[in-house]
Amino acid sequence: MGGDDARLRAVVSLAQAMAAAHTPRGCWRAAALGACEALGGSFAALSVWERGRGRLRVLVNAGERAEGEEEFPDEETYPVHQFPEITEFLHERWAGGGEPDAWVETAEGPLEPEPAGDGRGAGAAGAHGYGRGYCHQRVASLRRRGRGCCVVAPIVLHGRAWGELYVARPAGEPVFGRRDADFATVLAAVVAAGISQTERLEEVRKLAFTDPLTGLANRRAVDMRLDEAVERHRVDGSVVSLVVCDLNGLKWVNDTHGHAVGDRLLERFGSVLSRCGAMLPGALSARLGGDEFCLLALGPGADEVVEVATELCGRAAELEFGNGVACGIASTGDPIGPVVSARRLFRLADAAQYRAKAARSLKPVVAGRDGEVLRLADSPPKPAHDRRRLRGNRP
Questions:
Q1: Do domains 1-110+135-209 and 219-378 have the same CATH topology?
Q2: pLDDT above 90: residue 242
Q3: What is the mean pLDDT of the chain?
Q4: Gap between the Cα atoms of 293 and 272, Å rounded
Q5: Residue 393 contacts residue 360 (beta carbons within 8 Å)
Q6: Which sequence spans correspond to the domains of the chain?
Q7: What would the pLDDT profile of 75-90 be if each residue is shown by its tens digit?
Q8: Comparing C-alpha atoms, which of 60, 82, 355, 374 is closest to residue 195?
Q9: pTM of the prediction?
Q10: CATH homologous superfamily for 1-110+135-209?
Q11: Domain 219-378 top-level CATH class
Q12: What is the per-residue burial (b if ≥16 Cβ within 10 Å, else e) of 3-36?
């Protein structure tokens, strides 16, 4: 019973570690490390089956990694045609009524039938998936990396094969037995539940920080990122730039052609903004709400941001039904005075955008390069009956 109690504790520990992870990577790492410890392995990996690309993609390598193995590899992939058990066993056999059980591979090749008993530590083939798969590629990989055996457990999510959990032991260590394979199947089910929960949380987070119409970031995401950027500027002087855009004529489009056309215009401008924002490494493209959008950049110089914003204005003017954009820029790379808060930068960019709209400018107005912007941003709050008051300057 002692061994069973230890394994039960390992299952609980694995589930808790995955539940405590705050990111997908954290969840993957907790799954691999937990399974590795539970099975007495030295190395574990979690991979996802990307059906559309016909490959297994490694998400995480945990434990004692061999030379060239990265913890979170960008492009460690394996074509599934080299791993027939993925398509045949994980999909066809399981879909045909079989159980998604784990199996064992060894560096010595196929396993021999296991003698009667609990099979603990013996190298054998048998029922319940133990020793069912034999893959030359896996065997070659074990030998190449100094590992003696591995247990592979399919992960089933939402009723279909999602990927696999892989745990290995070094050469010279006892080979995984049938009980290990059965336990790996249990662990894979726990991992599947943890991944499902993480995916749901990620979807909620995505919805919380994404504009549903355009797919861009929303105001909440901008506020968070801008606070971080301004803090970075205060610490090391990194240039922070904010481009605020107001899509001209949206009300006329809605009134004349209907809101469906207006929404299409918002979506198309969102695409243009995203395309231009991609010219600035790491920039965040967002819809603030209504007809207002913004672009937040950390790092690029002010002139580079102005150049991209100028192209954005030009592309926006070419949109069907649109009437261009009023665009304002505030950058710590320009003479705008100390920027000690995100609110200050937002007010400057908003004032520049207001100037651009009032002047019907076809190009961006830049705070620090237009003398009126600083005065406008620092002016007292305007009367309540005015059509528009600057963000952050309300009573």
A1: no
A2: yes
A3: 85
A4: 11
A5: no
A6: 1-110+135-209, 219-378
A7: 899 887 676 665 555 5
A8: 60
A9: 0.56
A10: GAF domain (3.30.450.40)
A11: alpha beta
A12: eeeebeebbeebbebbeebeeeeebbbbbbbbbb
- Residue in this structure with the two tokens 């056309």, named with its chain if needed: 261
Asked if residue 176 lies in contact with residue 150, where contact means CB atoms within 8 angstroms, the answer is yes
- Give me the residues paired with residue 48 across strands: 57, 163
pLDDT per residue as tens digits for the range 25-77: 999 999 999 999 999 999 999 999 887 777 889 999 999 999 999 999 998 99
- Residue with tokens 């003696």, as numbered in its chain: 148
